[in-house]
Amino acid sequence: MALFGAPNYVLCVFLVIFCVVKSDKKCSKALNDYETYLGTKTPYRIVANYSTSEIKYDDCKAVKLWAMVRHGTRNPNVKLIERMNTRLVEIRDAILENFPEGNGEINNFDLDLFRGWSPKLEANDEKKLTHEGEDEMVLLAERLQSRFPGILTSVYSDSAFKVMEYAEDLKYYWIDGYGHELTYKQACPALTNMIEFFQTNESLPKSTVYFTHSGTLLKMLAHLELYKEEKHLLADDYDKNSDRNWKVSQIDSFGTNLIFILFDCQGRKKVLTMHQEDIVRLQSCPNSDLCDFDTFINYYNKDLECPFDTMCENEL
Ligand SMILES: *[C@@H]1O[C@H](CO)[C@@H](O)[C@H](O)[C@H]1NC(C)=O
Ligand SMILES: *[C@@H]1O[C@H](CO)[C@@H](O)[C@H](O)[C@H]1NC(C)=O
């Protein structure tokens, strides 16, 4: 390798990257175990103990955990990335020039891999945690959790998550949902906008899409009477409400969406409603996916007057 005058470290990184990128195909024999010899750049999975059985001792209970953990596998610093992007390309080209096809020292398979290789990192990728690094941290935490269900699960247990979930549901129930009628009645302009768009006989535009925030979606869901509760959600009723409909984790995730599709059914207008890409049936037509548009309008008629400014006591 001195042939190319490459500093060992850069070359090492080259081989690592080269082989990691190509790991699905496996590098030639000499490099098969390369991951075992990468010094402080070794991935944690080489050394990790994968046992997940609970570690316990008679008459003892694990109660605290203190740990010092090195960050997971991450990209090199910008200086090294720049060297990789210049020097490694030179080395690759030198290899390809010096070992023309058929030369026994590097086989054709590996030469192909070199041919297909190009640098993947940019300066602003420096020090970012890689997927490998992410897995290292997540899997480590998971194994610790199974070894010491006590300690870690007291904070991160399902039941603690469920209480936090309920708190979140309450918050949005009262801020954006069914808590106060005025809150969700405000969504009437949006509903009216949809109905007018479907009513017009203009064939274009064919679609209208609004991008908005969580609160708007929730108000609209409540306005349509979706995910309604029989009784208001209250903090005291946590135990009774485990089967509630109003779970914002499920109805108001990032990217949540509500879509209406107008169908023409042999001259009759019908509306399909989808929430998060699942077909939902509204109270206007509880027994069918497609809702006759007139039925739909009649059902929500009382809301269509939409005296928005009066409701909100806007000074005009
Ligand atoms: C891994 O850890 C378990 C205890 O959780 C231990 O019994 C086992 O010997 C360890 N494995 C190795 C290879 O050290
Ligand atoms: C659309 O056309 C239908 C039938 O041709 C008519 O009854 C309806 O009033 C029209 N709607 C509008 C908004 O012009």
Automatic annotation (TrEMBL):
Q: Where in the cell is it found?
A: Membrane
Q: What class of enzyme is it?
A: hydrolase
Cross-referenced InterPro entries, in alphabetical order? His_Pase_clade-2, His_PPase_superfam
Q: Does the keyword Magnesium apply?
A: no
Superkingdom is: Eukaryota
Provide the transmembrane region boundaries: none
| Signal sequence, start to end | 1-23
| EC identifiers of the protein | 3.1.3.62, 3.1.3.80
Keyword Membrane carried by entry: yes
Q: Which of UniProt's keywords are assigned here?
A: Hydrolase, Membrane, Signal
Q: Which GO terms describe its molecular function?
A: acid phosphatase activity; inositol phosphate phosphatase activity
Q: What is this protein called?
A: Multiple inositol polyphosphate phosphatase 1
- UniProt lists the gene as AUGUSTUS-3.0.2_06326
